[in-house]
Amino acid sequence: MQLREAVRRSPVSVTPDTTIAKAARAMHEGGVGAVVVVEDGRPIGIVTDRDITVRATARRFPPDARIDSVMSTDLVTGSVEDDVSCALHVFETHPIRRLPLLDDEGALVGLVTADDLLVNLSSELAELVRPITAQVLFSHSEADVPAVP
User: Fold this and answer.
1) b vs e for 20-41, b when ≥16 Cβ sit within 10 Å of the residue's Cβ?
2) For the chain, does the N or the C end have fewer beta carbons within 10 angstroms?
């Protein structure tokens, strides 16, 4: 499965001069836990709800401070063309839970999360388990062994 198929929501993005309060509001309205900071359509950073709590609120940044003052800039990105296994590898080897997805020109086109992959994989496992569960719950009786004279 390609990562484009694993994306469950459109990414929410803001510009570097967006205030912390507006970025938090964008997360709330989008029902997401992170915003990608973009400049000229290209991602330059990411801010999670945890970043706002730990970096901004705990350090007493004012709500009208710029979001780029608390964003992470060491972005790890993927391509919408990548296989899901690529994202799994990224999540195993980097301390992140969100992977911005880029097109061939480097523009942000999606965001896949560890949660997205967990939901997809658990759904696939449920499909795999269904026939096994039926066999266990509704097992058929064994055929009689033919008598040997």
Assistant:
1) bebbbebbeeeebebbbbbeee
2) C
